[in-house]
């Protein structure tokens, strides 16, 4: 039997207190957090704004990962975005102001956002998953489940883009 810590999160079994239908969302978010933390451990802050071939920068993805989780989970709670959230959205536009600890701060922000998302998943009743929710100012129709699943999918997509971009900019090509 392999060491459980070397398995992907979804193969480690159910997470305590997360409703069964929301386990895949929680697993995806935890997997993203583990991969992001590992990949960014030695990433130099000086490369955060690099955009090889015009791709979105690692800094953009790091900010967007946290921000989009916050926004999608807000919509799932049937709440409007706050002024703070709208300001954070506007701040996702590169370039990022860079400090020596920028990478650590951005990874910590994502870690905290995943913790908040997991706490919300634990209190989300499965009976609420088909309830309608509006997305954005236009109130585009979705559901609680649609928003939560999209948050996991969107996180995974941006993580993949971040990982590729990080490798490219670190290779100097």
Automatic annotation (TrEMBL):
The keyword S-adenosyl-L-methionine does not apply. Keywords: Hydrolase. GO terms for molecular function: hydrolase activity. Signal peptide: none annotated. Residues 29-162 form the DinB-like domain. InterPro entries: DinB-like, DinB/YfiT-like. This is Metal-dependent hydrolase.
């Amino acid at each position: 039997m392999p060491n459980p810590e070397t398995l992907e999160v979804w193969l480690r079994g159910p997470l305590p207190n997360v409703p069964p239908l929301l386990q895949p969302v929680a697993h995806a978010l935890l997997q993203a957090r583990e991969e992001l933390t590992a990949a960014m451990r030695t990433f130099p802050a000086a490369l955060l704004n690099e955009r090889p071939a015009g791709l979105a920068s690692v800094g953009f993805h790091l900010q967007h990962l946290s921000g989009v989780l916050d926004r999608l989970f807000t919509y799932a709670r049937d709440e409007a975005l706050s002024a703070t959230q709208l300001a954070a959205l506007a701040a996702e536009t590169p370039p990022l102001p860079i400090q020596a600890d920028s990478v650590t701060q951005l990874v910590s922000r994502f870690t905290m956002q995943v913790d908040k998302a997991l706490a919300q998943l634990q209190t989300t009743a499965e009976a609420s998953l088909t309830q309608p929710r509006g997305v954005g100012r236009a109130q585009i129709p979705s559901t609680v489940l649609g928003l939560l699943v999209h948050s996991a999918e969107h996180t995974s997509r941006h993580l993949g883009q971040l990982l590729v971009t990080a490798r490219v900019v670190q290779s100097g090509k």
